[in-house]
Amino acid sequence: MNAGALVSRSTLAQEFAARRVDFPILAREVHGKPLAYLDNAATAQKPRAVIDAVRRYYESQNSNIHRGVHTLSEEATTAYERARDQVRDFLHAADRREIVFVRGTTEAINLVAQSWGSEHLGPGDEVLVSTMEHHANIVPWQLVCERTGARLRVIPIDDDGDVDLEAFERLLCERTRLFAIVQVSNALGTVNPVAEMVARARARGIVTLVDGAQAVPHMQVDVRALGCDFYAFSGHKLFGPTGIGVLYGRAELLDAMPPYQGGGDMIRMVSFEKSLWNDLPYKFEAGTPNIAGTIGLGAALEYVAGIGLDSIGAWEAELLEYATARAHERGDLRLIGTARHKASVLSFVMDRIHPHDLGTILDREGVAIRTGHHCAMPVMERYGVPATARASFAFYNTFAEIDALFAGLDKARQLLG
Ligand code: 7TS
Fold first, then answer.
1. SS3 state of residue 210
2. How many domains does the chain fold into?
3. Which of 208, 211, 310, 364 has the highest local Cβ count within 10 Å?
4. Which domain holds residue 396?
5. Residues 266 and 381 grouped into a single domain
6. Nearest CA, atom 16, ligand 1
7. Which of 255, 275, 306 is the last residue before a domain boundary?
8. What ligand 1 atom has the least distance to the C-alpha of 107?
9. Listed residue (212, 239, 214) closest to 37, CA to CA
10. 133 CA closest ligand 1 atom index
11. Is 265 left (phi over 0), alpha (psi -120 to 50) or beta?
12. Distance from the CA of 238 to the center of ligand 1, in angstroms?
């Protein structure tokens, strides 16, 4: 590394170390050791700005939205709808009507599969996904395929964890109705060339969905530049609360889709003979939504914007490079996921030590990682492993925490041989 790169690395390290105080949980200890939280792909920690926004809502504004004429309800409605504008800006969407609040990525994809899928899929039609999908981008399609007679096709991945683009071309055909792909793989860290893939699918008139759960915490997303019809993400991986997520859908498609759930707020008029649906996006937001979560998500977006995703991405690239170099120094560790373009995930297996044992030993050292199949069983099968150990980084992580991870691996080696 040259002198300039070293200076920029240390400047970033200082800048991001200073952010740690924004996250109260990072000050805690686990088993008497400082917490090294390296499980950010599962869920990210919350800054005080988010915790405070949720608390403020419950302390001073709590009420239901879109119905009361009283002050609290008007304030809560304004705060809730402001978050929608924030999400629209965050995703660079054209219209706030294209932003639907849901529970998370899982619900967003189920909504599209159930609502769009049941109208547009039939016997002989195909839905195309990749081998590296999270179960949330597999099972909803299997369910709708089973009901409609459509078929799920799968793009293979190579040994590094890159999608096979030639196979992708071959699999796109006149039977393909929908193409759904993860932007950043939670199990491998691969960053897929989604804009290019989406363009190829759309050129054939195929509807496209991008699972952005692992992308939004690490890079800027512009849904119009990506060109996708649908985009899904979860608030909790983006430093926001659990139980809130977003489905972006192009208005033209959402408008033509039937409701996903029925109930309050999603109707214009109800009679026993016939009900009329509300306008977008309310047609897809039946019942009292997660008001506090939505407001918390708005606060998270504001917090992230204050740092800047380009800067976050630059620092996380340093963390990943450092961790990858340390992994390469060891002779007893196999990385699962070595794509050229990766984000924030170091997935690996160690000789003769089961990932679960590794996870337990690391926990005793204060190091939190995830072990298992990461809800991506087809990825495990592809690499012939039952599970991996996965460290996943956020911008508040440090080189010292990565050192703690590798010290923990040494300890596991001593204990388990
Ligand atoms: N898609 C991807 C790529 C994911 O990583 C996850 C969650 C989901 C969808 C589902 O998101 P949810 O918020 O609806 O649950 N991934 C993980 C993980 O890697 N470890 O725990 C959850």
1. strand
2. 2
3. 211
4. 3-30+308-416
5. no
6. 42
7. 306
8. 14
9. 239
10. 3
11. left
12. 12
DSSP 3-state of 31: coil
Q: What is the CATH number of the domain that holds 78?
A: 3.40.640.10
Q: Provide the edge-to-edge strand list for the sheet that holds 126-130.
A: 99-102, 245-249, 230-234, 207-211, 176-182, 126-130, 151-155
* Angstrom distance (rounded) from CA 384 to CA 363: 26
Query: Has residue 42 been placed in a domain?
Result: no
CB within 8 A of 164, min separation 6: which ones? 155, 156, 157, 158
Among candidate residues 232, 172, 167, 162, the one with its CA nearest the CA of residue 199: 172
Burial 102-130 (b: 16+ CB within 10 A, else e): bbbbbbbbbbbbbbbbeebbeeebbbbbb
* CA-closest residue to ligand 1 atom 5: 186
Ligand 1 center to residue 11 CA distance, Å? 32
Are 112 and 255 within one domain?
yes
Mutation to probe ligand 1, out of 103, 181, 234, 370 (largest number of atoms < 8 A from CB): 234
User: How far, in Å, is the centroid of ligand 1 from the Cα of 82?
Assistant: 26
Q: Is 210 left (phi over 0), alpha (psi -120 to 50) or beta?
A: beta
Is 228 an active-site residue? no
pTM for the structure as a whole: 0.98
Q: Can you spell out the DSSP letters for 357-380?
A: HHHHHHHHTTEE-EEE-TT-HHHH
- Is 41 among the domain residues? no
Q: Which of 145, 173, 228, 375 is catalytic?
A: 375
Among 278, 306, 334, the domain-final residue is: 306
Atom of ligand 1 nearest to the CA of 182: 3
What's the CATH number where 393 sits? Answer: 3.90.1150.10
Give me 295's structure tokens. Answer: 């407001």
Q: Which residues line ligand 1 at a C-beta cut-off of 6 Å? A: 41-42, 104-106, 134, 136-137, 182, 186, 211, 213-214, 234, 370, 374-375
